[in-house]
UniProtKB/TrEMBL annotation:
<feature type="domain" description="MyTH4">
    <location>
        <begin position="309"/>
        <end position="457"/>
    </location>
</feature>
<dbReference type="GO" id="GO:0005737">
    <property type="term" value="C:cytoplasm"/>
</dbReference>
<protein>
    <recommendedName>
        <fullName>Rho-GAP domain-containing protein</fullName>
    </recommendedName>
</protein>
<dbReference type="GO" id="GO:0007165">
    <property type="term" value="P:signal transduction"/>
</dbReference>
<dbReference type="Pfam" id="PF00620">
    <property type="entry name" value="RhoGAP"/>
</dbReference>
<feature type="region of interest" description="Disordered">
    <location>
        <begin position="137"/>
        <end position="217"/>
    </location>
</feature>
<dbReference type="InterPro" id="IPR000857">
    <property type="entry name" value="MyTH4_dom"/>
</dbReference>
<dbReference type="GO" id="GO:0005096">
    <property type="term" value="F:GTPase activator activity"/>
</dbReference>
<dbReference type="GO" id="GO:0005856">
    <property type="term" value="C:cytoskeleton"/>
</dbReference>
<dbReference type="InterPro" id="IPR000198">
    <property type="entry name" value="RhoGAP_dom"/>
</dbReference>
<dbReference type="InterPro" id="IPR001202">
    <property type="entry name" value="WW_dom"/>
</dbReference>
<dbReference type="Pfam" id="PF00784">
    <property type="entry name" value="MyTH4"/>
</dbReference>
<dbReference type="InterPro" id="IPR038185">
    <property type="entry name" value="MyTH4_dom_sf"/>
</dbReference>
<feature type="compositionally biased region" description="Polar residues">
    <location>
        <begin position="159"/>
        <end position="213"/>
    </location>
</feature>
<dbReference type="InterPro" id="IPR036020">
    <property type="entry name" value="WW_dom_sf"/>
</dbReference>
<feature type="domain" description="Rho-GAP">
    <location>
        <begin position="468"/>
        <end position="665"/>
    </location>
</feature>
<dbReference type="InterPro" id="IPR008936">
    <property type="entry name" value="Rho_GTPase_activation_prot"/>
</dbReference>
Amino acid sequence: MATATTRVSGAGYPGAEDVFVEITDPQTGKTFFANIATGECCWERPRHARVKPKDESGIEWWELFDDHHKLPYYYNTKTGETEWLRPTVGTIIPLTAIQNSSIGKRVSVLVQQASIANSFAGTSLLGAASLAADSPMRYMSNSPPQRSIPEEPVYPRPTTRSGSHPDISTTQQYSPLASPNMRQSNSSKNLSQSPPISASGNRTSLTQSSSMHSLRDAAARARTYGISTPVLNPEAAASMSPLNSPINAKIQSSPELQSPINEGKALPKDLKAQLSQFRIEGFATKYFSEHRKGIFFRRRVPVEKMLVYQKEPLKAPLMVLNKDLHKDALKCFKLIQKIMKSDPAAAVTDTHTLLEKGIAHGGLRDEIYVQICKQLKNNPDGESVYRGWILISVVTIAFPPSKNFEDYLKNFVQQHQGSTAGKVAMVVQHCWKKLLRICKTGPRGKTPTTAEIQRAQEAPFTQSLFGEPLEDIMKTELEKNPHASLPRILPFLADAIIHLNGCRAEGIFRVPGDADAVTELRMRVEKGDYSVMGISDPNVPSSLLKLWLRDLADPLIPSEFYSSCIQVGQEESRIPLSQSGPAALRIISSLPEINQRVVNYMINFLRVIAEPQNQPFTKMTISNLAMVFAPNFLRCPSDNPTVIFESTKFEQAFLRILISYVQEK
């Protein structure tokens, strides 16, 4: 390292240790004063010490040290050049002399970074200072830095051959540790002498030549604007967006490709069955554990024989599991055996324990499904088979199979749809609907309660108010009340929110209600008890209302109208409400009749919540309500996360238009 006694070039003063020099802070542009001999730095001009004015040339050099060659070199803060030979013009500031102070530590690091940046792109100190300003070492420019910085950073090496030391010129040319600009300089000479030859034997193409010019232009821009200055190119960013890709545009513009099932181009059924069986066999080979029997366990048990009903306990998990889950897997099998021998009403506690293990340990979920399937296959007891399917109908409200196991389980259920009769057939059909649903929605975060398990056991035979198509819910309602125009649950929950003073509750629809209270109210409504007795929090019915809308089997605004809604939302900022409002209402008028009635009821109800006199209490404006309810009205049909994210703001805009226009009408 350069020593602290390095002189200040051109000082010409006796007693140099008492002389301060002016130094420009490369980050803030402010001037501070440093004693080169003692390392003392201060922002204010010293009153009792001599201050050497800046050199007339305005040139400032920083003395650094090359650890590789054990030689000092000098960095020009204006031009970004580095020299091996000691300059004769300008002020020379040894780096280590001022590193003991907080100001010096930070400024020295900035200069080192500038020199490093210069070795790669020839940048100016302005660019390097900007780069350093974005680093964790930056500080507020109004006050000196407070945090310490390492005192021995890695030093860069000179980037120019000007004044090269005669003993190291050859070393720099061939050494792998030589600076990048030096290697680039040497390789550029070779390129100018002999153009590169491609694999086909031709000289460098025009495209390659233009690329080299682009690199040189980029280096020039870096020297002018600095490394950290971004080059904004909105057109390039738009063209690279996944939303503008040709494939995505084709999907969005083609109704055929948007449809989940294209009957005209579907594979033959027998071919689809063969492909499905191939995937299932491949899954079994990869994920099912190896079971052996016989003397010394030499004979491997085939998968088709392993997945067959058995009376005795399981000795090893059916699937490849983490060893920590082996005991739990065997306990799960005992629970399944016990549940399939007992009446469903008496097996609620064991079912809850089984679901609890699946919720807590994701690795056990496929194992639980496989164990149930095993006990259903070739089971001689018809009642046990019925209870096994009831168990699957309960498990499918708690967690789905993994994506790897999903096809296997779906194939298993489909195989039994046409081979069963009576009440078992009803349960199998119900399991199929719930399986498709849970595979889309994902696992629950909390184990279902005893009441929820009991309701799931009854669900195959009694129509539920949750998770079913709106048309089916309305049909059930008309059987009870032929004059009904809406499912009873909708006005019941809306009236409950108003009755419990929800129009004065801060964050209504945004603040969730107590989960247990919401579940209790849901079970109460499912049994036909429409009362809020014992409930005082309006967030409980408000949470259940959102759950009912969100849990509909099909979105409230069907998927075929989704793109039209998004288009109206996109035009919100470009056209007045007097035009976008009627456009939104035209879409609503095209919905199925029951969907129209529910949408209109909800919009008028949200209008009441959003009245100006309520907003000071609820803090829920029209925009806030649109943000909360947009996912309950619309569901993006795409699986692309980018498309879903980009569409969210237009969903909210559409609902905002709908509420605002109805409010002004």
